[in-house]
Design brief:
There is one protein chain. The chain has about 240 residues and is an alpha/beta fold. Helix content is about 35%, strand content about 10%. The protein has eight helices and six strands; from the N terminus they run H-H-E-E-H-H-E-E-H-E-H-E-H-H. The strands form two sheets. It has a four-stranded parallel β-sheet. It starts with 5 loop residues before the first helix and ends with a helix.
C-alpha cells in the first residue's frame, strides 16, 4: 500500500486492525492463492487514495464495484479509480455516457480517445467504488465481504473532516450510501446511473459537472477542469 497519502493512510491503518477488515483481507488472499483472478491488480486496489488527501477532496464520484473485464492483451479494465480505465483500454459504456453528458454540459469539453481519469483525481476528485475488488467476469462477486463497511468509514471521515465537497451520487446504490452526509456542509447531486440501462432516465441533461463547479466557486474553492488531456498532452505535461 505504497504512496497512499497520510490522512487516508492513518484511516486504513486503523481499519486494518478491525476484525471485519482482517477477515476481508484473508478471504481475498485465499482466493488469490486458489488462482482466482481478482481485479484490480493488488498494487492498484487503493489507487483512489494516492492522488489527493482527505481534507483536499473537492468532488466525490461514487461507483459500485470495479470493472470485472479485460481489455487489450488481457489487461484488467479496473485500475483502482471508479469509472476510469488505463489509457490502452477501450472506454466502457458508462464512461462513454459520462463523456456525452460532459460534452453537453461543460464548455470546451471534447470527448477524449481514452478513458483514464487520473487528471480528475489529481485535482481533488475522489473516484471511489463502494467495493474495491472483484473476481474476473463476476460482477458484485466481492460485495458483502466487508468492503462496504470500509467505504462507509471513508465517506463518514469525509463527511466529518472535509470542510465541504460535492458528492455525485448516481443510481440508487450510491444514493443509499450517501444518506448520512451532512447536506448543510456538503453539496449532494443525485441522479440516475450513467449506465446504458438508465442514462436516458435523467442522467443525460443532469448538468452535475457544471453544477459541481458552480458550488465549488461559490464556496471559495477552485473549480475542476473536467477537460481530459489527450495522451500526447498528458505525456508533454509529465515531461515538464
Amino acid at each position: 500500500m505504497s504512496n497512499i497519502l497520510p490522512q487516508w493512510q492513518t484511516i486504513i491503518d486503523r481499519e486494518a486492525k478491525q476484525p471485519y477488515f482482517i477477515a476481508l483481507q484473508e478471504e481475498i488472499k485465499k482466493q488469490r492463492q486458489l488462482s482466482e483472478v481478482i481485479f484490480p491488480l493488488e498494487e492498484d486496489v487503493y489507487n483512489a487514495f494516492k492522488y489527493c488527501d482527505l481534507t483536499d477532496i473537492k468532488v466525490v464520484i461514487l461507483g459500485q464495484d470495479p470493472y470485472h473485464g479485460v481489455g487489450k492483451e488481457n489487461q484488467p479494465q479496473a485500475h483502482g479509480l471508479a469509472f476510469s480505465v488505463n489509457p490502452e483500454i477501450k472506454t466502457p459504456p458508462s464512461l462513454v455516457n459520462i463523456y456525452k453528458e460532459l460534452s453537453n454540459d461543460v464548455e470546451g469539453f471534447v470527448i477524449p480517445e481514452h478513458g483514464n481519469l487520473e487528471n480528475w483525481a489529481k485535482q481533488g476528485v475522489l473516484l471511489i467504488n463502494t467495493v474495491l475488488t472483484v473476481k474476473q467476469g463476476q460482477a458484485h462477486s466481492h460485495s458483502k465481504l466487508g468492503w462496504e463497511k470500509f467505504t462507509d468509514v471513508m465517506i463518514d471521515e469525509l463527511n466529518q473532516k472535509n470542510d465541504g465537497c460535492v458528492f455525485l451520487l448516481w443510481g440508487s446504490h450510491a444514493q443509499k450510501k450517501g444518506k448520512s452526509i451532512d447536506q448543510n456542509k456538503h453539496c449532494i447531486l443525485a441522479g440516475p446511473h450513467p449506465s446504458p440501462l438508465s442514462a436516458y432516465r435523467g442522467f443525460f441533461g443532469c448538468q452535475h459537472f457544471s453544477m459541481a463547479n458552480h458550488w465549488l466557486i461559490e464556496n471559495n474553492k477552485e473549480a475542476i477542469n473536467w477537460v481530459i488531456p489527450s495522451l500526447e498532452e498528458d505525456k508533454q505535461q509529465q515531461l515538464f
